[in-house]
Amino acid sequence: GAAQLSDLTDKQIASSLSMGFNKSEVVYSASSGMQPEEWLAFVQSQLHIPIRRKTSHVESRNALAAHLNDHHDELRKAHAAASEEDPSMRWAHFIQFRAKIQNYKLALKSIAGSQYVGDIWIGTPPQKSSVVFDTGSSNLWVTSDECQTYSCGMHNRFAHHQSATFTELGEQMDVQFGTGAISGSLGTDVFHLGPVHIPGQVFGRITAETGQVFLNDFDGIAGLSFSELSATKEKTLFDNLMESGQLEKNWLTFFYDVEGKSGLVFGDVHHELYKGPIHWINVNRKLYWQVELFDITIGQTSLRKEGNLCPEVHGSCTLVFDTGTSIMTAPSSSAGHILNLLERRGEPLCYHLKDAHGIQSFCLEREEYSKHSQVQLMGLDVEAPKGPLYIAGDTWIEKFMTIFDHDNNRIGLALSATSRTY
Length: 422
Prior knowledge:
Elements: H1 10-18, H2 23-31, H3 36-45, E1 50-52, H4 58-82, E2 103-111, E3 115-122, E4 127-134, E5 140-143, E6 167-177, E7 180-193, E8 196-210, E9 220-223, H5 237-244, E10 251-255, E11 262-267, E12 274-282, E13 285-286, E14 289-298, E15 301-302, H6 303-306, E16 317-321, E17 328-330, H7 332-345, E18 349-355, E19 358-364, H8 366-369, E20 370-371, E21 374-375, E22 377-379, E23 390-392, H9 394-397, E24 400-405, E25 410-416
Parallel strand pairs: 1-2, 4-9, 5-8, 16-23, 17-22
Antiparallel strand pairs: 1-11, 2-3, 2-11, 3-4, 3-7, 5-9, 6-7, 7-8, 10-11, 10-24, 12-25, 13-14, 14-15, 14-16, 14-18, 18-19, 20-21, 24-25
């Protein structure tokens, strides 16, 4: 089988990269019998990056969920501020890719049983940071070694003075969340995602952070949203990737496996990751990764017919696919009713999605929408014109492999290969 990056230590990888080898060459030299040109051909056709998960702790899980809600609230504020050209919000910048590849799978892990993170490498020689890959934002920031708070000591901290390719931009950033705050400055450096190298990437270095959420095991956030959601006029991570022409298909695919084998694929999807057909739904607006939500049914109960789907708009609503939110959300006007029905009946929860091609339905069984005897849904309000909306967070992706197709502005859903449901 393919050599795995996890077979090498971080020290071995960093040392090899500092001597001019990319990760594909490191894996080749460590565990492959192929010739270099054969290995590079393999790298260009299929590349893998892992995601990790840890045991759930209720207190940290709740703190992280609260932080993620605040994160989206602050993102909406940033988006509004951008129209007033607020310079204090101009710290969201993006990754661009240089290698010509068909697909690249980045492994992810779960932290606190509620969020998935993967590794990126920054600087020369490379230093590791574990980040949340978030399709609900365009922000990019990592913890700096200049941060001396207690929580910072628990993270991988980027030491910019140890990188020969780092440049300080001299611009400060301050972001306030309901559950904490971060501050720091902007800089540029080379970023590595496996064999892909991105020189001159602008990012935020966190020099101070407060709040319980930062006790969780992630070092930053890498946003993967549409540029229309950005707080700045900069191109997003994936916009730069598309312009570079390095992928045969401009797709991002997330697959979550509760057993620990999770990942993010850049490019064409691996057929072994799903079963059955891929169902495509067109995005109804390039802002969030969002589609039209025609109805939600619980057993035989239709929220649309009851008038409880989106009472504020009297009709269809919006469903957002957001990897930065750990559970499902609904407008508070509907969430209580949905929770009551699910907890009392335990019947299948079905989302009916609509585009110009018709209506497609996707259902979660009780064991799929409930964990530790708790339904994985909470109330979250997003004001008009962006809202009201529902969010299909990580709970969805644990059942449905999810493709974010930038070429055609659509979402692809297929049963995960590890799903117990057909």
